[in-house]
Write a structure and sequence with these properties.
- The chain folds into 3 domains: 3-116, Cytochrome Bc1 Complex, Chain D, domain 2 (Orthogonal Bundle); 120-174 and 239-255, Orthogonal Bundle (Cytochrome Bc1 Complex, Chain D, domain 2); 180-230, SH3 type barrels, CATH 2.30.30.100.
- The chain is 29% helix and 14% strand.
- It is built from 8 helices and 7 strands, in the order ααααααββαβββββα.
- It has helices spanning 3-7, 30-43, 45-48, 74-83, 99-110, 125-133, 164-172, 244-255; strands spanning 143-144, 147-148, 184-189, 194-202, 206-210, 216-220, 224-230.
- The strands form 2 sheets. A 5-stranded antiparallel β-sheet has the order 6-5-4-3-7, with no helix packed on it. It has a two-stranded antiparallel sheet with strand order 1-2.
- Helix 2 packs across helix 5 and helix 4 crosses helix 5 (99-110).
Length: 261
């Protein structure tokens, strides 16, 4: 977790009952960082490695990237360390461990990643914003700050959870990694009619979609003859559409999008 979490994403509260509410990390000094490092190695290194880069005895994920699958804020990270993640290998920390120790571990993790402001990019963010809303047509599908389409992920804070390298892959090779949330589905109803759209969610009885006109559908599986997922991305590659310099500008703009802006 990079310093951004402790300066602009600190939306957590410190509670001696183990429940984080909205406040900043109360244990974020240099001493806390050193104590957190020691505590991490006692409680977390078995899974996440001695240096927190993953690949411990149970192959836990790398924790030095500042991005966490089950937490997008320091509040969420506090709760994950304290309570674990149900249905995964991530177990709760020993209940005898104090909240102070949990916060110190977070402070240590925060120190492991570079500040995004220290990362130099070749592109120009202002030009990238113009490309996003213009030539790139990105705003047709993606929303930023409440403006834009809903057929792709909201990118208002994409700079907090995607690196420049990942953003480049997203733009040039969008099919490399497609979250199930962005699969498309083709539904064939019992009467033979067909419905296509983005898969919003699915449970035992129901499929929920949003179609190309941004209309929401909730369809009972009992009313369907078949339903087929398409696991490729609806995001077109920008290769051949934008120049290398324009891609650099667009990446610079997207990477600048975080809560502090």
């Amino acid at each position: 977790m990079h310093r951004l979490f402790l300066t602009t994403l600190l939306m957590t509260a410190f509670s001696m009952q183990g429940q984080a509410q909205d406040t900043s990390n109360p244990f974020a000094t240099g001493i806390d960082r050193r104590m957190g490092e020691s505590s991490f190695r006692v409680h977390c290194s078995l899974c996440h490695g001695y240096d927190a880069k993953g690949g411990g005895e149970t192959a836990g994920p790398d924790l030095t990237t500042g991005r966490f699958r089950h937490a997008s804020s320091v509040t969420g990270l506090f709760d994950i360390i304290r309570d674990g993640v149900e249905g995964t290998a991530m177990l709760a920390i020993n209940p005898d461990v104090s909240d102070r120790v949990v916060w110190q571990i977070i402070t240590y993790l925060d120190s492991l990643t570079p500040n995004p402001s220290d990362i130099e990019l070749p592109g120009n963010a202002s030009t990238g914003q113009q490309i996003f809303n213009g030539k790139g047509s990105c705003s047709n599908c993606h929303m930023i700050g409440g403006e834009g389409g809903r057929l792709g992920p909201d990118l208002s804070r994409v700079g907090e959870y995607r690196t420049p390298a990942e953003l480049r892959t997203d733009l040039i090779k969008p099919n490399d990694e497609v979250d199930p949330r962005w699969w498309t589905m083709t539904l064939t109803r019992n009467n033979g009619s067909i419905l296509k759209g983005l898969r919003l969610s699915e449970d035992t009885f129901t499929l929920r979609l949003i179609d190309q006109n941004e209309r929401l559908w909730s369809v009972s599986k009992n009313s369907l003859r078949s339903y087929t997922p398409n696991k490729t991305s609806t995001m077109p590659s920008v290769e051949g559409v934008l120049t290398t310099e324009e891609v650099d500008d667009l990446i610079a703009y997207l990477f600048s999008l975080r809560k502090e802006n």
